[in-house]
Amino acid sequence: MAKRQPSTIVTLRNPKLAAARIVRFLRDYSKKHDVRKFVLGVSGGLDSAVVLFLLRRAFKPEQIIPVLLPERDITHSGDLRDAKLVVESAGLLHRAKTIWIDPIVLVARMKSRPANSTALANIRSRVRMILLYAIANSQKERTMVVGTGDRSEAFLGYFTKHGDGGVDINPIIHLYKTEVRQLARILGVPESICSKASSPGLIRGVDAKVELGAGYDVLDSIISLSIDKKLPPSRIALMIHDVADRDTVFRILERVKRMEHKRKLPPNLAR
User: Fold this and answer.
1) Is 41 helix (H, G, I), strand (E, B) or coil?
2) For 259-271, what is each residue's pLDDT tens digit?
3) What stretch of H or E contains 66?
4) Exposed (0-12), middle (13-18) or buried (19+): which is 179, by Cβ within 10 Å?
5) Cβ neighbours of 233 (radius 10 Å)
6) What is the mean pLDDT of residues 56-60?
7) How far is residue 247's CA from residue 255's CA, in Å, rounded to a whole number?
8) How many CA atoms are closer than 13 Å to the CA of 253, on its beta-carbon side?
9) SS3 of 40, please?
10) Is the four-CA dihedral 207, 232, 150, 185 of positive or negative sign?
């Protein structure tokens, strides 16, 4: 039996136009701010692959620095292989850097003694952010760290503050995960990446669907109906009852509300 999809599934009406718009945005911003190079962490996942392919459309190869930041015993060998496939497919294998983050994470872990696996996962993400900025700062020309966060992750708070959320520019933050997947196919991202299950790669063996309690087809429908259509949770539950129960809808929207602090500047008295 074919997998059911929400009748309200989020889709891009014109993926080619969406890609062209992002490329234009990247070029315009870089010209306005005199940015000559771009550093991007490539994980082997969907989002970073799409952003790399967009950068490749917007700029020359010598302007792009893909960085692989694996960790032994945490990064799955398949993810590292996929990251190399993405970089090679984009014609940027000769530009890529690989830095194993184990030694830095080990020191941070010993000194801070994280309370649980989530705290340790945040350390991993922040170590990667530090290394990306270190590489950007080592360049002679003005260089930006490019983010890979999407709209789904932003509303779910499914990212680390000052980790993968610490970037200079976010070219796909306006797109839901299901839209990013559509974009990947028209950009020429390898099909194995386009259809790959999403995972932050911070805790061994945990993917996004398990951690969030639903797939992105369902999550995106719930968030879009709430944020974009302004519908109440009870109405949303009725609309997608064939793929998600009422408790799931309310739980996801409560998470969106609870994670609002991640989408805002820290509290302050500035006007």
Assistant:
1) strand
2) 999 999 898 998 7
3) strand 64-68
4) buried
5) 17
6) 98
7) 12
8) 22
9) strand
10) positive
**What mean pLDDT is reported for the chain?**
93
| Residue that wins the pLDDT comparison between 65 and 76 | 65
Phi, psi of 161 (to 5 degrees): -60, 130
φ/ψ of 64, rounded to 5, equals -115, 130
Angle, vertex CA 108, rays to CA 104 and CA 112, nearest 5: 175
DSSP-assigned letters across all residues of 195-248: TPPP--SSSTT--HHHHHSS-HHHHHHHHHHHHTS---HHHHHHHTTTTS-HHH
pLDDT of 1 reads 44
The closest alpha carbon to 94, from 141, 60, 51, belongs to 60
Report d(CA 181, CA 30) in Å as an integer.
25
What is the three-state SS of 81-134? HHHHHHHHHCCCHHHCEECCCHHHHHHHHHHHCCCCHHHHHHHHHHHHHHHHHH
How many residues make up the chain in this entry?
271
Cα(7)–Cα(267) distance, integer angstroms:
39
Q: CB neighbours of 219 closer than 8 A, spacing ≥ 6?
A: 152, 156, 177, 212, 252
184 SS3 class: helix
The token duo for 36 is 């000559």
What average pLDDT does the segment 152-176 reach?
96
Higher pLDDT pick, 268 / 208: 268
Nearest alpha-carbon partner for 252 in 122, 119, 158: 158
pLDDT digits (tens, 9 = 90+) for 35-51: 999 999 999 999 999 99
Do 155 and 227 contact (CB within 8 A), yes or no? Answer: yes
